[in-house]
């Protein structure tokens, strides 16, 4: 029994500690930023606490850690990270393919690919970003301003390549490779968790396996991860997994596969084969894991239905106005060669739903399938893609309905699969004006707890929490986070297991989840009674932080 005083006593909770062990009833004392004590109910005197929280009937767990966050830009717009912290997210790990730092080399404007509206909303952040010569400069600027969640990042592999080579295809020269190795080492020294590539997007897609191995060897020296959006999640899924495994073996470092899936109806049977291939690698001693989001639709740019060579030299939109180029692209999209991920080919335009329109004349197409849009415009769907991209001058965020629900459950059951969002945090109050987005931005973690734990019993409560906290912290090498233990940071979520649920849908997306009552980050409450408190106690996290 404690004899001292402390800030907060959370009483009578069903404690799920993030290890996967069975829940137990307990009282939890918080002092400052840390959990001070965990004891059976009634063993910690109420008088010792400056605040008492009645948690009877509720679950208390570690805060959720999102290994695939896209909150880079949203956190500049809104420090609260509202749609994420109200899901129970206390730590955001960013960096898939792109980071707003470092700026230098061939990168003079790290925000150049943002739309006109996004640049306008960011205001002075666009100017400030041009001074971020190191990865840490960006993260430090965020925390100095204040953010609700903890933040950390991988170095974006696309950013790394563009720094050395611009948007040029081909093999790096010896000098360019030396630049990449130097910048990679600097990022690791700044606390990066490793390097992150998204191998279906330019310039990442221009990167050879050999180049990925060379960069990963630098990451290995610092104990980091190679984390990747595979080169294919469809027709070449198994070959793409083999490539990731080869990189891990040759560079001798752990591998994490982003949002594991088999996309496209004809590829759905490959999910079981992909799992078997990863299981075989693990059985042979290779350290490889994956993460997933619990939805049947994925989300990326409409530009991704077109071959990546169009983006070489930053002339993507210019090339789309050239008639011979359009004819060449049309042929490649309708009969893809197999050396790039032709997203629409395996789905058809009826399973592609663009939502990220900004120009007033295009808003009428928001939320309609590409087949409908083509009909409205009296065009072939490929021509509609060309003209809409030219009109918007940005990638146009799009939902692709290509994932089998049964495969989502199959993937979640794997002990080496964790949960991620592949999304940034938003507030419905301002996000509605920007049009629809993917519901994973609002509902990923409550959806797991509601649909896949309570309703369908795909996972136990304890294993679901482990996949959202302790297992992710262990994968990243985070110290004193991810578990509910004395001495650990008080990143905590208090929720009602009987009611927690996602509300956001593809048809009506801008809805916060329900059932998450309170959230603490570093001992400060950022959500109370389901409402954001305005607190911004987030810290930078990395493999060495404690």
From TrEMBL:
It comes from the Bacteria. Residues 51-261, 421-527 form the Amidohydrolase domain. GO terms for cellular component: cytosol. SUPFAM superfamilies: Composite domain of metallo-dependent hydrolases, Metallo-dependent hydrolases. GO terms for molecular function: hydrolase activity, acting on carbon-nitrogen (but not peptide) bonds, in cyclic amides; hydrolase activity, acting on carbon-nitrogen (but not peptide) bonds, in linear amides. InterPro entries: Amidohydro_3, D-aminoacylase_insert_dom_sf, Metal-dep_hydrolase_composite, Metal_Hydrolase, Metallo-dep_Hydrolases_sf. This is D-aminoacylase. It comes from Ktedonosporobacter rubrisoli.
